[in-house]
Design brief:
mainly alpha, 138 residues, 434 Repressor (Amino-terminal Domain), 2 strands
């Protein structure tokens, strides 16, 4: 049954944690079933049947028949067209960064707030180095 459970999780695009949460069982129990340490009990199978009515429980328990009760109930993978060429990209890390001294608001706030100032900015580079900009007036 552990192989069929894994097939079902793949077909539904579910993680073990998502599946466990959806049928109200401990997450570790799914891991134990998939590893073959434990076999699912009646309550587990009952919860699966209630939560996933399109699943053919006979297939789930015995392996006989098809995974879903009807072909129309099987999940369909949704593939979105590639739009990478339409998305402009901006490389924020290719140019040096100037430290921010202060920020002012266009409109004054109605309620008084404590002024916040930036005290430190860390910039990490892809070569593993970093720069630190301090705005402390010490």
């Amino acid at each position: 049954m552990n192989d069929r459970l894994q097939q079902f999780l793949s077909a539904e695009n579910l993680t073990q944690s998502q599946f466990a949460d959806s049928i109200n069982v401990a997450r570790a129990s799914i891991s134990h079933i998939l590893a073959g340490r434990n076999k699912p009990g009646f309550e587990f199978i009952e919860n699966v049947a209630k939560r996933y009515p399109s699943l053919n429980i006979e297939w789930f328990i015995t392996g006989k028949g098809k995974m879903y009760k009807s072909a129309s109930e099987a999940p369909v993978a949704q593939v979105s067209p590639a739009v990478e060429d339409d998305i402009p990209t901006v490389d924020l890390f290719s140019k040096p960064v100037e430290p921010i001294k202060s920020i002012t608001l266009d409109k004054p706030r109605q309620t008084p707030i404590k002024e916040k100032n930036i005290s430190k900015i860390l910039v990490f580079y892809t070569d593993g180095t970093f720069e630190e900009y301090n705005n402390n007036k010490e």
